[in-house]
Specification:
It holds the Pfam family Glyco_hydro_95_C. This is Alpha-L-fucosidase 2. 30% of the residues lie in helices and 26% in strands. The protein is an alpha+beta fold. The mean pLDDT is 96. The longest helix is centred in the middle third of the chain and has 24 residues, at 396-419. The protein has 3 domains: 11-43 and 92-194 and 211-301, Distorted Sandwich (Beta-galactosidase, Chain A, domain 5); 53-86 and 376-623, Glycosyltransferase (Alpha/alpha barrel); 718-780. The strands form 8 sheets. It has a 16-stranded mixed sheet that branches.
């Protein structure tokens, strides 16, 4: 439960609800509400302005020139040549509309909580006194019915006004329709055809034109008061209850953006939205709709529980914002850490569901027309981090939207691969639902972020990972073309022959730079460590999928040989993992990215047991990189320390993640009053990464073993967790006391033998399909 004594004054104080299709944030205002709506399909674009600057026919020759410049040590020429491969930019996720509710009379705070969000039910609420009588609001987002419901109950008859307005985008028209069940307000909007990132200096950053798409908000209203529509506002007199049901959507005009909230034309969209509202508001329909929502939400959320003991419990009785401030000086509120864990799962359920798009940089909630980094998909870490908790915390259904984005990019990305003269598909560091595959930057983008062609390679890792937890053979077969296309691109991207050594070129380590021979910062070289880790993981995934599907894969042996011949991760003079394939002075020694450690986590190619030298070097790398950074970077450090089994450092990262977020664009992460995580500004990846990191502290797994409590802090003296998932879809429930395992219950969907490790001790167990298997401390004697 999140709760507060006062209304929200800004976006990062508001409380979020979402059904994966539509999101809303609530302010909990005294005397009304401001329901700020986001529609998951409301993106700018599509636009033809996203083509690369370079004529595709010239790509192969230009790439060869880049490689020759790198081989000659002329990094400046290589970076200049690479700019021609850039396009303008990918598209932006947009704000959508606001439903405003204003009650007449004198509003005053009520005693006790003013507003709250119950993560268990997905219902947000608030209360106040209106002319001395209590008024209560509640809001939830139903995935089964694809609507947002806002209920108001007044202690005495009240008058109020309800309106809908576009949120920073163009209006298309507003009207009201009388239905058998009440009144339906309808707002039409127009989406920009193109929106430039806020960091770009462009003469016309927001463009409307022939490619602009239409959108709509329908709000159905039932009340026991007298309602009348005038001047774009619905007035209601003498109401003791009002129910508002909201449906949103956009008109589709792009083949890759299939979405449950889109329709082929405006008339079809209007029918879709009105039907959704009627299905909830018609007589005797609401209670079944509420039950569907509660069952659907609990069916996902209640799978996992976490209780952390050992700290003070006094803080749990304070409002959430006060708890966050208190945590700055008193780190004993272990229940706040558990709340942050649960909140990450709640946010993923709310922002990534079947029929929708993947969670973007802000999940499904955004208030700005030019949001930070376009609120799109940054696929050199951030989009991947959004899905780190999906499989381990038992939300595999939420992972499906990411796989659909991979399917889309496997189609659109053939153009990006072809630009390099390669087969298969490629994607760079930014994309959107239209599947933008090219490097962005409009010929001005710095190579440290623009010239990274491994986005598709990393996303392809999700294919095998999904199957390894779910055993979903049909989804694996559907994903095979994407995995095969990523592998074919890798085959053509890797240079050289296996018997004489191979490399990748050009190669960058995302967003980081080294000091070049001329003394300035540079990004481009050969075979960055992250390249090798990603390609190694891709090769392993392809081999495992091919074995499961049993299909002949003529290119697999060639890929295996080429990947094995790449320069392997090396250890530098300070005992650290080298970020590039050569010793280099880091331009930013405490840079936020830890891309060269991806082989450790999340890829799990390195481990304490199998690669102890690299694991030790990773420890030294993290020490040199430092604990302080942006929100998502600290979440990555949390996962890395947890995977290394260093509980104290993992706990330190978690403590930093729960600081009060600072203002501005400093690289100091933390949380806002509503527990949204800060880059800063708000960026949701750290919410998800922190949830995954806590899970990693409690359970780790791979094909070799399941590891119990591998990074348990001493401060978590007693606790329990239920419902985490290990590789193979194995459920794991744990209880511990005094840092000692009390019990572990494993349940596998099918019969399997697994090794289980606790406190450095290993046992092998036979799990019968569908049955609980219990272990205790004595099992490891």
């Amino acid at each position: 439960m999140l709760w507060y004594r006062a209304p929200a004054e800004q976006f990062v104080e508001s409380l979020p609800v979402g059904n994966g299709l539509t999101g809303a944030t609530l302010r909990g205002l005294a005397g009304g509400e401001r329901v700020q709506l986001n529609e998951g399909s409301a993106w700018s674009g599509p636009t033809d302005r996203s083509a690369p600057l370079l004529d595709p026919a010239d790509g192969t020759a230009r790439l060869q020139a880049v490689r020759e410049a790198i081989d000659a040590g002329d990094v400046r020429r290589a970076e200049d040549l690479l700019m021609a491969f850039q396009s303008t930019h990918s598209q932006a996720y947009l704000p959508f509309a606001v439903v405003s509710v204003e009650a007449a009379g004198t509003a005053a705070p009520a005693d006790g909580p003013a507003r709250w969000l119950d993560l268990r039910t997905g219902i947000a609420g608030h209360r106040y006194l209106l002319d001395g009588s209590e008024a209560r609001h509640r809001t939830f987002a139903s995935h089964p019915d694809a609507v947002i419901v806002h209920d108001i109950a007044f202690g005495a008859p009240a008058d109020l006004r309800i309106g809908i307005s576009p949120d920073k985008i163009a209006a298309r028209g507003m009207d009201a329709v009388t239905q058998d069940w009440g009144t339906e307000l309808r707002l039409g909007v127009v989406l920009p055809a193109d929106v430039a990132p806020s960091h770009e200096q462009t003469a016309e950053p927001v463009v409307y034109g022939p490619d602009s798409r239409a959108g709509a908000v329908h709000a159905g209203i039932v009340t026991d008061g007298e309602a009348g529509f005038a001047h774009g506002v619905l007035g209601i007199r003498g109401a003791t209850f009002v129910r508002i049901v909201v449906a949103t959507g956009t008109v589709l005009n792009h083949p890759y953006a299939r979405h449950a909230n889109t329709a082929d034309d405006a008339d079809a969209l209007a029918r879709l939205l009105s039907a959704r509202i009627a299905g909830v508001l018609e007589e005797e329909s609401f209670e079944p709709a509420m039950e569907r929502h509660l069952a659907d939400h609990a069916g996902l959320y209640s799978r996992v529980s976490l209780e952390l003991g050992g700290g003070s419990t006094a803080a749990a009785g304070k409002p959430t914002d006060e708890r966050i401030h208190a945590f700055e000086t008193d780190r004993s509120d272990s229940a706040l850490m558990a709340l942050l864990f649960h909140y990450g799962r709640y946010l993923l359920i709310a922002s990534s569901r079947a029929g929708g798009f993947p969670a973007n940089l802000q999940g499904i909630w955004n208030e700005q027309l030019q949001p930070p980094w376009s609120s799109n998909y940054t696929i050199n870490i951030n989009t991947q981090m959004n899905y780190w908790p999906a499989l381990t915390t038992n939300l595999a259904e939420c992972h499906e939207t990411l796989l659909r984005l991979v399917d889309t990019l496997a189609r659109t990305g053939t153009a990006a691969a072809g630009l390099y003269g390669a087969r298969g598909w490629a994607a760079h560091h930014n994309t959107d639902p239209w599947g933008h595959p090219f490097a962005v930057g409009a010929g001005k983008g710095n190579a440290m972020w623009a010239s990274w062609a491994m986005g598709g390679t990393w996303l392809a890792d999700s294919v095998w990972r999904h199957y390894s937890y779910t055993g979903d053979l049909a989804r694996l077969q559907a994903s095979w073309p994407a995995l095969e296309g990523a592998a074919l691109f890798a085959l053509d991207w890797i240079i050289g022959e296996a018997d004489s050594g191979t490399h990748t070129s050009p190669s960058t380590s995302p967003e980081n730079r080294f000091v070049a021979d001329d003394g300035g910062p540079a990004a481009v070289g050969r075979s960055a460590t992250m390249d090798v880790s990603l390609l190694s993981a891709l090769c392993a995934s392809a081999r495992q999928v091919a074995a499961v599907l049993g299909a002949p894969v003529p290119w697999l042996d060639d890929l295996t040989r080429k990947v094995a011949a790449l320069p392997q991760p090396a250890i530098g003079g300070r005992g650290e993992v080298l970020e590039w394939s050569f010793p280099a002075t880091e331009h930013e020694p405490e840079h936020r990215h830890t891309s060269h450690l991806a082989g450790l986590f999340p890829l799990q190619e390195w481990s304490l047991e199998a690669t102890p030298e690299l694991a030790a070097a990773a420890v030294r790398t993290l020490e040199l990189r430092g604990p302080e950074s942006t929100g998502w970077a600290m979440a990555w450090r949390l996962g890395l320390w947890a995977h290394l089994g260093v509980a104290g450092k993992a706990e330190e990262s978690l403590h930093l993640a729960l600081r009060v977020a600072g203002d501005g664009l400093t690289e100091r992460g933390g949380v806002y009053p509503n527990l949204f995580t800060a880059h800063p500004p708000f960026q949701i990846d750290a919410n998800f990464g922190t949830t995954a990191g806590i899970a990693e502290m409690l359970v780790q797994s791979d094909a070799a073993a399941i590891r119990l409590l591998p990074a348990l802090p001493a401060a978590w003296g007693e606790g329990s967790v239920r419902g985490l998932r290990a590789v193979g879809g194995i459920g794991v429930d744990l209880r511990w006391s005094g840092g000692v395992l009390g019990s572990a219950v494993l349940r596998s969907p099918e019969a399997v033998r697994r090794d289980v490790v606790w406190d450095g001790r290993r046992v092998s167990v036979e799990l019968a399909g569908g049955e609980d298997f219990e272990l205790s401390e004595d099992s490891f004697l």
